[in-house]
Amino acid sequence: MTTNNIAVLKFGGTSMGTAETMNICADVISNKIKQKEKPFVVVSAVSKMTDTLIKLLELAKNNKKHDLNTVFQASKDRHFEILKNLTKNAELIEKYSKIINAKFAHLFEILNGIILTSDYSEKTQAYVLSYGEDLSSDLMELCLIENGIKGKKINSNKLVKTHGSYLSSDVDFIKTKRAFSKIAKEIENGTIFVMTGFFGGGIDNEIMLLGRGGSDFSGSIAGIALNAKIVEIWTDADGVMSADPRIIKEAKSWEEMNKDIASEMARAGAKVLHPKTISASFYKIDILIRNLFNRAFNGTLINSKLYGDGVKGVVSDDDYSILHLENQDMFGSAGFVAKIGIIAKENNISLDMTTTSETSISFTIKTKTLNKVALKAFNSIADFSIVEDVVKVSVIGENISNNQILEKLFTALKSSKIEPLMISMGHSNNNIGIIIKKNDKVKTIESLHKAFF
Ligand code: ADP
Ligand code: ASP
Ligand code: MG
Fold first, then answer.
1. Most-buried pick from 25, 36, 72, 228 (CB within 10 A)?
2. Cα distances (angstroms) measured from residue 342 to each of 103, 169, 337, 339
3. pTM for this one?
4. 39 has a pLDDT exceeding 60
5. CA of 17 to the centre of ligand 1 (A)
6. Residue range 367-392, pLDDT digits in tens
C-alpha cells in the first residue's frame, strides 16, 4: 500500500507525435495535479523516431551518405516543427532550439563516426537509439513549462540502473530504487519530472536499452521505484482489446484484465503493452491503459485478480519462418534436440513454436535472425527446408485448452478455408498458437475473432 499519491503517466509515440498531442498530454497532467495527485511523466520518442534512428544506423553502416543526410534532415525538421508549434515565446524558442540543435549536431557526428570507423557495436546502436526519447523529453519539458507546469526533464540512464545486453538490458531494482530516492523530495515539492523511456544506464551511466516498445516498462520501473499508486500507460487505443483495432474494427475493449493474460497478449504480439510492464502488478501497483484520444474511455485496469475463463483476445505476430529438420536417426535417439539448441544458441537464434514427430522437428524463428552459418550447421545434422513469410496467430484467454474452444477454433478455420501450418497448445492453458501463411493473416484473425466474440 502506498500513501505518496504518485501517478506515473507514460505517454507513447503517437502521444508525442505533434505539439497538439503533447498539449493533450499536458492537459492530462494538469488534471492530475488538480486532483492532488503527483504525476511522474515518462515519454516515448516522437512517433516513428526510433524506426528512423534504426534507418539512420543502417545507412551509416552501409555508407549511404546522401540518403543519410536526407533522412537526418527530415527528422531534425520534424522536431523543430513541433518546437515551433509548442511556443511563441522567443526566449524559450532560443533556449530549446539550442538544446535540440546541439543534440542533432552530436548525433550527426556519431553517425559519421560509424561511417568512418565501421563501429556498429551494440553499445553504439543503443546510444544512437536513445536520441529519440532524449529529444522528445526536451520538447515535453518545454510543453509543460508553456502550460504553466513545473516540468523538469530527467535522463533515465541516471535513474533506471541496468546490466546485461545493451539492446535489451535487465533492471537492478535495488540500485534503481536508490537512484529514484534522490529525487523523492523534489517530487514531493511539486516538480513534475519528465523521464526518458526506453533506456536505463549501466555502471558508468552508459545507455542500455530495455528492448523495442520498452517505454511502457520504463513506466512500470518508475512506478515500482517510487512506490506509486498507479501506472497509467497513455496510448492511441481503447486499452487492451480483443484484437488489434487496426485489423478488427469491432474489437472489444476490456475494462479489467488479469496481469498474466495481459502479459501473454503482449508476448504474443499485442503491441499495446510491453510484456514486462506488468511487473508493477507484482508490487500491487495498478496499471491502467488509457486512450489519449478518447478520454471518455476509463481504460483497461490490469491487476492480479482472475476474471473468469474464456478467450480474451486474438493476437498476431509477423515475420516468422518455419525450419523443418528431418533425420531418420532421430527415432529413439537421445540428444538430437540438444544439437539444435546448441546451434541456435551459438547463432543467437531464439526458437519459438516447436512441433515434432519421431523423425522430424519443426520450429519457428524470427526471419531476421536467420543466417547462413546457422543454416549450414542445421544442414549438417538433418535434411532441412524453410518456409518463409509465415505469421503466428494466438488465441489468448483463461483456461482455454479444452475441446469446446478447439472445436470453435477449427470450425472457424475450416469455414474460412485456412490451413494451419503448425499448431501449439501447452501447459500454460492460456495460449493456443497457430502458424499460417502471411497472406491468410487478416482472414484468420477475422474468422477467429468472429468465432469467439
Ligand atoms: P505507443 O506508441 O503509445 O506505445 P504502440 O503503437 O506501441 O503505442 O501500441 C498501440 C497500438 O497497439 C495500437 O495502435 C494498436 O494498433 C496496437 N494493438 C495491437 N494489438 C492490440 C490489442 N489487442 N489491443 C489494443 N491495441 C493493440
Ligand atoms: N521508442 C521506443 C520504440 O519505439 C520505445 C517505445 O516507444 O516504447 O521501441
Ligand atoms: Mg508502445
1. 228
2. 43, 23, 9, 5
3. 0.94
4. yes
5. 15
6. 999 889 999 999 999 998 999 999 99
